[in-house]
Amino acid sequence: MSGIDRAIFLDSKHTAKHLPGTAQAQRLLKRGRAAHVFHDEATMERVAQAIIAGGEFTGIIREYERYGLLFSEPIGYRIAPDGSTMALFYGEVKIDAENQYHVIPRTERSEE
Questions:
Q1: Each residue's pLDDT tens digit, 58-76
Q2: How far apart are CA 29 and CA 24, in angstroms?
Q3: At 97, is the secondary structure helix, strand, or coil?
Q4: Are 67 and 58 a contacting pair, CB within 8 Å?
Q5: Residue 30 and residue 70: Cα distance in Å, rounded?
Q6: Which is it for strands 100-106 and 9-10: parallel, antiparallel or unpaired?
Q7: Distance between CA atoms of 3 and 54, rounded to whole angstroms?
Q8: Contact, 44 vs 52, CB < 8 A?
């Protein structure tokens, strides 16, 4: 079975760190960490809906249930602290114990 077949709810506290130009994404870069951002909020929403409808369950990793989907077109990009970028094609939905989710653009599926 693919997709998520129960009600889940967006946890918006994670949204800004995955959008370009936000203070939260800039904070990650200033701390020496890479920022994984979607092209825009519309792309983020489209990716979330595609994963909810047809994403593959990839396991429970670091206390989050995870579903992912590989896209044929870039959905976002990784910004390194030095400013270099890399296109991202994989999207992941993380669901916590309260059925709250957030979506992340990634290089590949999460592993333990």
A1: 999 989 999 999 999 999 9
A2: 9
A3: coil
A4: yes
A5: 29
A6: parallel
A7: 4
A8: no
